[in-house]
Amino acid sequence: MENNEKENTCSDINRRDFIKLIGGAAAGAAITAAVSGCGGSPNEHSRARGVPTDKMTYRKDKNGNSLSLLGYGMMRLPVVQRRRGESRPDTNDIDQEAVNELVDYAIAHGVNVFDTAPVYSKGFSEKATGEALSRHPRDKYFVATKMSNFRQQHRSREDSIRMYYQSFENLKVDYIDHYFVHNIGTHQAWRDRFLDNGIYEFLLKEKEAGRIKQLGWSFHGDGDFFEWMANEYPWDFVMIQHNYLDYRNIMGWTNINSRRQYEILAEKNIPVWAMEPLLGGGLANPHYKVRELMTQMKPDVTPASWAMRFAGSFPKVVTALSGMTFMEHLQDNIISYSPLEEMNAAENKLLENVNDIMLRYRNILCTRCQYCMPCPYGIDIPEIFTQYNRSMNEGNYPVNPDSESFKRARRAFLVGMDRSVSPARQASRCISCRKCVSTCPQRINIPQELRRIDAFIEELRTGGQA
CB neighbours (10 Å) of residue 144? Predict the structure, then answer.
């Protein structure tokens, strides 16, 4: 681990600059999003502590490179605010100016890992990432991207190779630092996407030629397959979903056992890339009872910082990727790792209590990865789940008609859903075609959850009991 020990210098972005960054018309919504992302008033704790420019924690990869422990996940990029219904699924809504400013700020504060994929941000993330990074010297950053040949039409050798070369063009580079075989969780997927079409051997040859510096694998899937895959192939690094919920493998909450996955990789001395340390933002704005516990122990630390510190406290984790849409998210995460203060025994004990609470008030484990989108019937699946979870976490979940707070909670839930999701894209439109189920890395039974939410909304609208 390397830490720069120079005298600390700090920089920050003020509220006026933040509003300018995202556009005045969208300021209110963006600030609300920033609050939910950081678990407090906009950058309240970041302002109090300052954002260090030269204290980032670094860890070594297999080639001896110093990677920033905070990695920038380029999946959830800022978008241009449009009127409801104006944007289409195939429209590039990315706010390039905002992306550039975020990337500039990240690099200035020690972040040097940027992770993207051909499928992120409706297929436009690589281009936006390349545009932002190409304005900096090539030795200032490590860029990661992936072979995202999920769809049947992309699995042929020709189409997969075309996707590979397109990444170089999009990213404006002549080599890729870290290249993934993307989202492989079963033997069948591995054979179909990389063995039978010869793509794995193609990637090995590209690595020998120096166009790929390191070759890795990102995992969502079966635990037995994980162990086989880790033992069978000489990976330079592996990405797993790693956070304080998945690490404890809560039965009934998740099938992911990141504890065992981490142990396997540590035993083999394979560097770990941690994805979803915040579970798509869910651990940045957990249930209010969780936030109360965290605040009692550490009043100046955000829930997001708790989660990021947990992920970073494992020595084999060389970078923890976070999708930072707003400057507030970026600043809070930089503080968490500048430098990292590893979790102590008391904090880990508190997180065990947090697990119990989050199991009791169970959210839908959507990480907003967008793999289920676009829905053929226009349903905004991630936003529906996000709004449902937000209502649960804020205590606006109307379950007892006899309580004094029921009317307020009922109105807050319905108004919040209607404002977030247009009527044509709500859960009632689901016909259970199940096309989304096979693409969900969290194994959510999406149609079942949509039916449950729709029935709950219908009861509230008609005055029935929840």
Answer: 29
Say if residues 297 and 285 touch (Cβ distance below 8 Å): no
Class (C level, CATH) for 2-360: alpha beta
* Element holding 354 (H helix, E strand): helix 345-360
Q: What count of residues does the chain have? A: 466
Collapsing DSSP to helix, strand or coil, 20 comes out as: helix
Spacing of C-alpha 169 from chain mean position:
25
User: What's the farthest any 2 CA atoms get from each other in the chain?
Assistant: 70
Nearest to 130 by CA among 174, 90, 87, 89: 174
Q: How far apart are CA 173 and CA 275, in angstroms?
A: 24
Question: Is residue 125 within 8 Å of residue 114, measured between CB atoms?
Answer: no
pTM above 0.90, yes or no: no
Give, to the nearest 10 degrees, the angle between helix 15-22 and helix 96-108: 140
* Cα–Cα distance for residue pair 145/75, rounded to 1 Å: 11
CB within 8 Å of 120: residues ≥ 6 apart: 74, 75, 77, 126, 370
**What residues does 214 pair with on adjacent strands?**
178
The residues facing 367 across adjacent strands are none
Taking the C-alpha atoms of residue 326 and residue 119, their distance in angstroms, rounded to an integer, is 21
Q: Minimal CA–CA distance to 316: which of 271, 258, 276, 379?
A: 271
pLDDT in tens, 104-138: 999 999 999 999 999 999 899 999 999 999 999 99
